[in-house]
Amino acid sequence: MTDIVTFGEVLAEFMALETNQSLGAPGHFAGPFPGGAPAIFIDQAAKLGSGAAMVSCVGDDAFGRMLVERLAADGVDVSAIATRPDATTASAFVTYHDDGQRDFIFNIANGACAEIAPRQFDGVLAGCKLFHIAGTSLFSGHMIDLARQAADRVKAAGGRVSFDPNVRKETLARSGARQALTDLLSRTDILLPSDSELNLLVDIDDDEQAVERALALGVSEIAWKNGSHGCRYYDGATVTHHESFAVSEVDPTGAGDSFGATFCTLRTQGMAAADALVYANAAGATAVSRRGAMEGTSTRAELDAFIDSHG
Ligand code: ATP
Ligand code: MG
Protein backbone atom coordinates (compact mmCIF):
# COMPACT_ATOMS: atom_id res chain seq x y z
CA MET A 1 0.00 0.00 0.00
CA THR A 2 1.41 3.37 -0.98
CA ASP A 3 0.08 6.02 1.42
CA ILE A 4 2.47 8.84 0.60
CA VAL A 5 3.78 9.86 -2.83
CA THR A 6 6.00 12.68 -3.98
CA PHE A 7 7.77 13.60 -7.20
CA GLY A 8 10.71 15.70 -8.35
CA GLU A 9 14.46 15.79 -7.91
CA VAL A 10 16.73 13.19 -6.39
CA LEU A 11 20.24 14.62 -6.50
CA ALA A 12 23.85 14.15 -5.49
CA GLU A 13 24.93 16.97 -3.19
CA PHE A 14 28.45 18.30 -2.65
CA MET A 15 29.18 20.52 0.35
CA ALA A 16 32.03 22.99 0.66
CA LEU A 17 34.17 21.99 3.65
CA GLU A 18 35.12 25.56 4.66
CA THR A 19 32.69 28.24 5.80
CA ASN A 20 32.60 31.18 3.34
CA GLN A 21 34.24 28.98 0.67
CA SER A 22 33.53 30.37 -2.80
CA LEU A 23 31.78 28.26 -5.41
CA GLY A 24 33.86 30.21 -7.93
CA ALA A 25 37.30 29.08 -6.75
CA PRO A 26 39.03 25.71 -6.23
CA GLY A 27 38.33 24.23 -2.81
CA HIS A 28 37.51 21.01 -1.00
CA PHE A 29 34.03 19.51 -1.07
CA ALA A 30 32.44 16.54 0.69
CA GLY A 31 30.06 14.33 -1.23
CA PRO A 32 28.22 12.95 -3.06
CA PHE A 33 25.52 12.95 -0.36
CA PRO A 34 21.95 11.89 -1.25
CA GLY A 35 19.69 14.94 -1.46
CA GLY A 36 16.81 16.75 -3.14
CA ALA A 37 13.90 18.18 -1.14
CA PRO A 38 11.23 15.64 -2.22
CA ALA A 39 13.73 12.77 -1.86
CA ILE A 40 14.45 13.76 1.75
CA PHE A 41 10.72 14.11 2.40
CA ILE A 42 9.91 10.63 1.10
CA ASP A 43 12.91 9.05 2.86
CA GLN A 44 11.64 10.48 6.16
CA ALA A 45 8.08 9.27 5.43
CA ALA A 46 9.31 5.72 4.75
CA LYS A 47 11.44 5.71 7.92
CA LEU A 48 8.26 6.47 9.90
CA GLY A 49 6.72 3.27 8.55
CA SER A 50 4.29 4.55 5.91
CA GLY A 51 4.17 3.08 2.41
CA ALA A 52 6.06 5.80 0.52
CA ALA A 53 6.88 6.13 -3.17
CA MET A 54 8.83 8.64 -5.25
CA VAL A 55 8.31 9.50 -8.91
CA SER A 56 11.56 10.68 -10.52
CA CYS A 57 14.26 9.99 -13.08
CA VAL A 58 18.00 9.41 -12.71
CA GLY A 59 20.74 8.93 -15.26
CA ASP A 60 22.52 5.63 -15.88
CA ASP A 61 25.40 6.70 -13.63
CA ALA A 62 26.92 6.16 -10.20
CA PHE A 63 24.97 9.07 -8.60
CA GLY A 64 21.67 7.62 -9.81
CA ARG A 65 22.50 4.13 -8.58
CA MET A 66 23.60 5.47 -5.16
CA LEU A 67 20.37 7.46 -4.78
CA VAL A 68 18.01 4.66 -5.78
CA GLU A 69 19.85 2.17 -3.56
CA ARG A 70 19.76 4.54 -0.59
CA LEU A 71 16.03 5.28 -0.92
CA ALA A 72 15.23 1.58 -1.34
CA ALA A 73 17.37 0.68 1.69
CA ASP A 74 15.36 3.17 3.77
CA GLY A 75 12.09 1.54 2.64
CA VAL A 76 11.00 3.86 -0.20
CA ASP A 77 9.16 2.26 -3.13
CA VAL A 78 11.48 3.20 -6.03
CA SER A 79 9.45 1.45 -8.76
CA ALA A 80 8.46 4.85 -10.24
CA ILE A 81 12.05 6.14 -10.45
CA ALA A 82 13.05 5.60 -14.08
CA THR A 83 16.58 5.49 -15.49
CA ARG A 84 17.07 7.76 -18.51
CA PRO A 85 20.14 6.43 -20.39
CA ASP A 86 20.78 9.71 -22.21
CA ALA A 87 20.50 12.00 -19.19
CA THR A 88 22.66 12.71 -16.13
CA THR A 89 21.48 12.45 -12.51
CA ALA A 90 20.83 15.88 -10.95
CA SER A 91 23.45 17.39 -8.64
CA ALA A 92 23.97 20.39 -6.38
CA PHE A 93 26.94 22.25 -4.90
CA VAL A 94 26.46 24.24 -1.69
CA THR A 95 28.57 26.53 0.44
CA TYR A 96 27.71 28.02 3.84
CA HIS A 97 28.45 31.55 5.02
CA ASP A 98 29.03 32.91 8.55
CA ASP A 99 25.69 34.73 8.53
CA GLY A 100 23.78 31.47 7.88
CA GLN A 101 23.25 32.22 4.16
CA ARG A 102 23.85 29.43 1.65
CA ASP A 103 24.88 29.62 -2.01
CA PHE A 104 23.86 26.82 -4.37
CA ILE A 105 24.68 25.75 -7.91
CA PHE A 106 22.00 23.32 -9.08
CA ASN A 107 22.00 20.92 -12.01
CA ILE A 108 18.31 20.07 -11.66
CA ALA A 109 16.43 21.62 -14.58
CA ASN A 110 19.11 20.15 -16.88
CA GLY A 111 19.21 16.81 -15.04
CA ALA A 112 17.43 13.50 -15.58
CA CYS A 113 14.67 14.42 -13.09
CA ALA A 114 13.38 17.07 -15.57
CA GLU A 115 12.29 14.20 -17.84
CA ILE A 116 9.57 12.64 -15.65
CA ALA A 117 6.73 11.31 -17.83
CA PRO A 118 3.07 11.52 -16.70
CA ARG A 119 2.65 7.72 -16.98
CA GLN A 120 5.26 7.19 -14.24
CA PHE A 121 2.60 8.18 -11.69
CA ASP A 122 0.19 5.43 -12.78
CA GLY A 123 1.63 2.61 -10.67
CA VAL A 124 1.84 4.51 -7.38
CA LEU A 125 -1.10 6.95 -7.11
CA ALA A 126 -3.87 4.37 -6.50
CA GLY A 127 -4.87 4.57 -2.84
CA CYS A 128 -2.47 7.45 -2.17
CA LYS A 129 -3.52 9.31 1.00
CA LEU A 130 -1.08 12.20 0.69
CA PHE A 131 0.66 13.68 -2.35
CA HIS A 132 3.53 16.03 -1.48
CA ILE A 133 4.74 18.89 -3.68
CA ALA A 134 8.16 20.43 -3.00
CA GLY A 135 8.42 23.94 -4.44
CA THR A 136 12.00 23.20 -5.54
CA SER A 137 10.61 20.70 -8.08
CA LEU A 138 8.48 23.33 -9.86
CA PHE A 139 11.31 24.51 -12.10
CA SER A 140 9.46 24.21 -15.45
CA GLY A 141 5.97 24.38 -16.88
CA HIS A 142 6.18 20.61 -17.38
CA MET A 143 6.89 19.98 -13.67
CA ILE A 144 4.09 22.36 -12.63
CA ASP A 145 1.67 20.47 -14.92
CA LEU A 146 2.76 17.14 -13.39
CA ALA A 147 2.17 18.51 -9.87
CA ARG A 148 -1.28 19.86 -10.77
CA GLN A 149 -2.37 16.64 -12.49
CA ALA A 150 -1.17 14.34 -9.70
CA ALA A 151 -2.74 16.58 -7.04
CA ASP A 152 -6.07 16.49 -8.88
CA ARG A 153 -5.96 12.69 -9.20
CA VAL A 154 -5.17 12.21 -5.52
CA LYS A 155 -7.82 14.68 -4.35
CA ALA A 156 -10.48 13.16 -6.65
CA ALA A 157 -9.81 9.81 -4.93
CA GLY A 158 -10.19 11.33 -1.44
CA GLY A 159 -6.49 11.91 -0.65
CA ARG A 160 -4.82 15.10 0.58
CA VAL A 161 -2.08 17.34 -0.81
CA SER A 162 0.83 18.88 1.09
CA PHE A 163 2.93 21.73 -0.29
CA ASP A 164 6.26 23.17 0.87
CA PRO A 165 6.51 26.31 -1.28
CA ASN A 166 10.26 27.01 -0.84
CA VAL A 167 9.48 30.11 -2.86
CA ARG A 168 11.81 33.08 -3.29
CA LYS A 169 11.24 36.57 -4.74
CA GLU A 170 13.17 35.62 -7.91
CA THR A 171 10.94 32.58 -8.52
CA LEU A 172 7.79 34.69 -8.38
CA ALA A 173 9.24 37.22 -10.83
CA ARG A 174 9.05 34.62 -13.64
CA SER A 175 6.06 35.11 -15.90
CA GLY A 176 3.07 32.97 -14.89
CA ALA A 177 4.78 31.77 -11.70
CA ARG A 178 2.44 33.48 -9.23
CA GLN A 179 -0.66 32.13 -10.95
CA ALA A 180 0.78 28.59 -11.12
CA LEU A 181 1.70 28.62 -7.42
CA THR A 182 -1.70 30.04 -6.46
CA ASP A 183 -3.33 27.22 -8.45
CA LEU A 184 -1.32 24.71 -6.42
CA LEU A 185 -2.11 26.53 -3.17
CA SER A 186 -5.81 26.19 -3.90
CA ARG A 187 -5.29 22.39 -4.17
CA THR A 188 -3.30 22.24 -0.91
CA ASP A 189 -4.57 20.74 2.36
CA ILE A 190 -1.37 20.96 4.43
CA LEU A 191 0.86 23.99 3.80
CA LEU A 192 4.46 23.96 5.06
CA PRO A 193 5.99 27.44 4.57
CA SER A 194 9.08 28.81 6.30
CA ASP A 195 10.28 32.36 6.98
CA SER A 196 8.34 34.82 4.75
CA GLU A 197 7.40 32.29 2.04
CA LEU A 198 3.67 32.47 2.73
CA ASN A 199 3.77 36.30 2.70
CA LEU A 200 5.50 36.20 -0.70
CA LEU A 201 3.14 33.59 -2.06
CA VAL A 202 -0.07 35.46 -1.25
CA ASP A 203 1.57 38.92 -1.49
CA ILE A 204 0.46 39.97 2.02
CA ASP A 205 3.00 41.29 4.55
CA ASP A 206 0.91 40.70 7.68
CA ASP A 207 1.32 37.09 8.88
CA GLU A 208 -2.20 36.64 10.25
CA GLN A 209 -3.79 38.09 7.11
CA ALA A 210 -1.57 35.87 4.94
CA VAL A 211 -2.77 32.85 6.92
CA GLU A 212 -6.41 33.96 6.49
CA ARG A 213 -5.86 34.19 2.73
CA ALA A 214 -4.40 30.66 2.54
CA LEU A 215 -7.25 29.23 4.62
CA ALA A 216 -9.75 31.05 2.34
CA LEU A 217 -8.14 29.35 -0.67
CA GLY A 218 -8.95 25.96 0.90
CA VAL A 219 -5.83 25.11 2.94
CA SER A 220 -6.88 23.28 6.11
CA GLU A 221 -3.64 23.16 8.12
CA ILE A 222 -0.54 25.36 8.13
CA ALA A 223 2.66 24.35 9.92
CA TRP A 224 4.85 27.46 9.62
CA LYS A 225 8.54 26.61 10.18
CA ASN A 226 10.86 29.08 11.86
CA GLY A 227 14.28 27.43 12.25
CA SER A 228 15.61 27.43 15.84
CA HIS A 229 12.47 29.33 16.92
CA GLY A 230 10.26 26.30 16.29
CA CYS A 231 6.97 26.57 14.43
CA ARG A 232 3.45 27.97 14.49
CA TYR A 233 0.36 25.96 13.61
CA TYR A 234 -2.97 27.19 12.23
CA ASP A 235 -6.06 25.17 11.33
CA GLY A 236 -8.67 27.92 11.17
CA ALA A 237 -9.84 27.22 14.72
CA THR A 238 -6.60 27.23 16.72
CA VAL A 239 -3.24 28.98 16.61
CA THR A 240 -0.40 27.35 18.55
CA HIS A 241 3.34 27.86 18.89
CA HIS A 242 5.75 24.99 19.44
CA GLU A 243 9.32 25.65 20.62
CA SER A 244 12.13 23.86 18.82
CA PHE A 245 14.56 21.58 20.64
CA ALA A 246 17.94 23.03 21.60
CA VAL A 247 20.69 21.46 19.46
CA SER A 248 23.86 22.73 17.85
CA GLU A 249 23.38 23.29 14.15
CA VAL A 250 25.84 21.45 11.89
CA ASP A 251 24.01 21.52 8.54
CA PRO A 252 20.62 23.25 8.11
CA THR A 253 19.87 21.70 4.68
CA GLY A 254 17.00 19.23 4.82
CA ALA A 255 15.53 20.36 8.16
CA GLY A 256 12.39 21.72 6.54
CA ASP A 257 11.84 18.52 4.56
CA SER A 258 12.38 16.23 7.56
CA PHE A 259 10.04 18.45 9.61
CA GLY A 260 7.35 18.53 6.91
CA ALA A 261 7.50 14.82 6.18
CA THR A 262 7.27 13.93 9.85
CA PHE A 263 4.27 16.19 10.38
CA CYS A 264 2.43 15.00 7.24
CA THR A 265 3.22 11.31 7.75
CA LEU A 266 2.12 11.22 11.38
CA ARG A 267 -1.04 13.21 10.53
CA THR A 268 -1.76 10.69 7.75
CA GLN A 269 -1.24 7.89 10.30
CA GLY A 270 -3.92 9.56 12.46
CA MET A 271 -1.83 11.37 15.09
CA ALA A 272 -3.23 14.62 16.59
CA ALA A 273 -1.60 17.79 15.20
CA ALA A 274 -0.19 18.92 18.56
CA ASP A 275 1.70 15.64 19.00
CA ALA A 276 2.78 15.47 15.35
CA LEU A 277 4.33 18.96 15.72
CA VAL A 278 6.49 17.79 18.64
CA TYR A 279 7.77 14.92 16.48
CA ALA A 280 8.24 17.30 13.53
CA ASN A 281 10.33 19.68 15.67
CA ALA A 282 12.38 16.70 16.86
CA ALA A 283 12.91 15.59 13.25
CA GLY A 284 14.00 19.11 12.21
CA ALA A 285 16.39 19.38 15.15
CA THR A 286 17.87 15.95 14.38
CA ALA A 287 18.31 16.96 10.74
CA VAL A 288 20.30 20.12 11.54
CA SER A 289 22.62 18.23 13.88
CA ARG A 290 23.96 15.98 11.09
CA ARG A 291 26.02 16.77 8.00
CA GLY A 292 24.29 15.71 4.76
CA ALA A 293 20.70 16.58 3.89
CA MET A 294 19.33 13.02 3.99
CA GLU A 295 21.62 11.84 6.80
CA GLY A 296 19.33 13.56 9.30
CA THR A 297 16.14 11.57 8.64
CA SER A 298 14.88 9.54 11.61
CA THR A 299 12.84 6.48 12.52
CA ARG A 300 9.99 6.71 15.02
CA ALA A 301 12.16 4.98 17.64
CA GLU A 302 14.96 7.53 17.08
CA LEU A 303 12.52 10.42 17.45
CA ASP A 304 11.04 8.90 20.63
CA ALA A 305 14.53 8.55 22.08
CA PHE A 306 15.41 12.13 21.05
CA ILE A 307 12.25 13.55 22.66
CA ASP A 308 12.86 11.54 25.86
CA SER A 309 16.44 12.74 26.13
CA HIS A 310 15.50 16.39 25.44
CA GLY A 311 12.65 16.61 27.93
P1 ATP B 1 15.24 24.03 4.52
O1 ATP B 1 16.58 24.66 4.65
O2 ATP B 1 15.30 22.54 4.57
O3 ATP B 1 14.41 24.59 3.39
P2 ATP B 1 13.23 25.38 6.06
O4 ATP B 1 13.64 26.79 5.91
O5 ATP B 1 12.11 24.89 5.22
O6 ATP B 1 14.51 24.43 5.87
P3 ATP B 1 13.51 25.60 8.91
O7 ATP B 1 12.56 26.54 9.53
O8 ATP B 1 14.91 26.04 8.72
O9 ATP B 1 12.85 25.06 7.56
O10 ATP B 1 13.58 24.26 9.78
C1 ATP B 1 12.46 23.40 9.92
C2 ATP B 1 12.29 22.97 11.35
O11 ATP B 1 13.49 22.30 11.79
C3 ATP B 1 12.07 24.11 12.34
O12 ATP B 1 10.71 24.48 12.42
C4 ATP B 1 12.58 23.47 13.63
O13 ATP B 1 11.61 22.58 14.16
C5 ATP B 1 13.75 22.63 13.14
N1 ATP B 1 15.01 23.39 13.21
C6 ATP B 1 15.58 24.11 12.21
N2 ATP B 1 16.71 24.71 12.62
C7 ATP B 1 16.86 24.36 13.93
C8 ATP B 1 17.85 24.64 14.94
N3 ATP B 1 18.91 25.42 14.70
N4 ATP B 1 17.67 24.10 16.17
C9 ATP B 1 16.60 23.32 16.44
N5 ATP B 1 15.65 23.01 15.53
C10 ATP B 1 15.77 23.52 14.30
MG1 MG C 1 12.28 25.25 3.20
UniProtKB/TrEMBL annotation:
<keyword id="KW-0808">Transferase</keyword>
<comment type="similarity">
    <text>Belongs to the carbohydrate kinase PfkB family.</text>
</comment>
<keyword id="KW-0418">Kinase</keyword>
<dbReference type="GO" id="GO:0016301">
    <property type="term" value="F:kinase activity"/>
</dbReference>
<dbReference type="InterPro" id="IPR050306">
    <property type="entry name" value="PfkB_Carbo_kinase"/>
</dbReference>
<dbReference type="InterPro" id="IPR011611">
    <property type="entry name" value="PfkB_dom"/>
</dbReference>
<keyword id="KW-0067">ATP-binding</keyword>
<keyword id="KW-0547">Nucleotide-binding</keyword>
<protein>
    <submittedName>
        <fullName>Sugar kinase</fullName>
    </submittedName>
</protein>
<feature type="domain" description="Carbohydrate kinase PfkB">
    <location>
        <begin position="1"/>
        <end position="298"/>
    </location>
</feature>
<dbReference type="GO" id="GO:0005524">
    <property type="term" value="F:ATP binding"/>
</dbReference>
<dbReference type="InterPro" id="IPR029056">
    <property type="entry name" value="Ribokinase-like"/>
</dbReference>
<dbReference type="Pfam" id="PF00294">
    <property type="entry name" value="PfkB"/>
</dbReference>
